[in-house]
Each structure stands twice: as structure tokens, then as C-alpha cells.
Description:
The chain is built from 5 helices and 2 strands. The chain is mainly alpha-helical and 153 residues long. The protein has one domain (5-146): Up-down Bundle (Fumarate Reductase Cytochrome B subunit). The longest helix is centred in the last third of the chain and has 29 residues, at 118-146.
Amino acid sequence: MTPRPDTIRLGSLQEGAVYLATAALVFSGALWLVLHYFMVKQGEFGPTPHPAEPWMLRIHGAAAMAGLIVYGSLLPIHVRRAWAVRRNVVLGISVICFMLLLTVTGYLLYYAGSEQLRPIISAAHWVIGLAVPLLLWWHVASGHGASTKTSNS
Ligand code: HEM
Ligand code: HEM
């Protein structure tokens, strides 16, 4: 049976949770970048990280865990039904790929020991992360456009 397209639409609670988790991830990540690259103080023993830096990572880690639950909750209904009727597929899969890349690079930031690789993984992680709001906005705008047309990929 082909699912009815209107059931692809998220409920307001789930939609709000997607925006809230994404905003928490982007803001904590972006603030960490500002503190880390622009607000290092010269202390007695050389450059000292801003005291709010570790707090940004604590908030970011919590938001990442919440985000993975929220994004995962879209798979059984939102993604499966949109996939079945082939609506907004290219931008939908792109959002999933970005989230997967963020999860893998986030994992590597925790556990990859190499000092040479860390700056590359870090830059890859936050460059992809800063692009997420734009991609999500594009996905939503194109999805809403697609719901008034017969087909879209
Ligand atoms: C983690 C991945 C994804 C996230 C965070 C996400 C998020 C969203 C959000 C917030 C909306 C706007 C709210 C709404 O219209 O209900 C939306 C709309 C939409 N998404 Fe996704 N989405 C994801 C993956 C996908 C995939 C893989 C597809 C396609 C296979 C897809 C297809 C659509 C469609 C068709 C709409 C428009 C729904 C409508 O207006 O009736 N999404 N998405
Ligand atoms: C699915 C989404 C995401 C996951 C699972 C995730 C996960 C992680 C993890 C596990 C860390 C390491 C934290 C630590 O070292 O204590 C991290 C760091 C970081 N994340 Fe994310 N993140 C996500 C999205 C984002 C987004 C959207 C941004 C946007 C700017 C971002 C920016 C950063 C930054 C700047 C760091 C610090 C990098 C460093 O320590 O060198 N992340 N993230």
C-alpha cells in the first residue's frame, strides 16, 4: 500500500524538537569556535582557554545525544513514507548524510588519538556543522514546495 503523502508531515512537537536540537548544536558549536579562536587570554603560563569553552562542549555533547534521538525518530515515518512516494529525496538524503558525517567525525573527535589528524577532523566537523542550518532550511522549503507539486526529487 502506498502511504498517504500528508502523513510525511511532522507533528508540531517533533518538528519543534528538530529545530531545537539543531539550534542547540549549531549555537554551542559556533560559540565554542568564537571562544576557542578569538577569545583566548594570555595567562601567566601562556595562552589560556576561555572558561566558558568546556561548558560549550558539555552543552554540545548533550545536544548531540538529544539530536541523535530526535533525528532517529524521523526514520520510521517521515523518511520511510517520503522515500516510498519519492518526495524531496535528494535533499532528504543529503540531510541524513550530513548528520552521519557529523556523527562519525564527532565520534573521532572523542576517540581518534592522532595529534596530526585531530585538526583535520575538527575542521571537517565544524565546516559541515555550520552548513547544516542552510541545508535543513533548503530541505524544508523544497519539501513544502514539493507537497504542492506532483513530483520532486
Ligand atoms: C535526518 C533527516 C531529516 C530531517 C532532520 C528532516 C526534517 C524535516 C523537516 C523539519 C521538515 C519540515 C516539517 C514538515 O514539513 O513536516 C521536513 C519536510 C519534508 N521532508 Fe524531511 N527530514 C529528513 C529526512 C528526509 C528524507 C530522507 C526525505 C525523503 C526521502 C524527506 C522528505 C521530506 C518531505 C517530502 C517534506 C515535506 C513534507 C510536507 O510538507 O508534506 N525528509 N523534513
Ligand atoms: C549530529 C550532529 C552532531 C554531533 C553528533 C556532534 C558531535 C560532536 C562531538 C562528539 C564532539 C566532541 C566534543 C568534545 O570533544 O568534548 C563535537 C565537537 C564539536 N562540534 Fe559537533 N556534533 C554535531 C553537530 C555539530 C554542529 C551542527 C556544529 C556547528 C558548528 C558542530 C560544531 C562542533 C565544534 C566546533 C566542536 C569542537 C571541535 C573540537 O573540539 O575541535 N557540531 N561535536
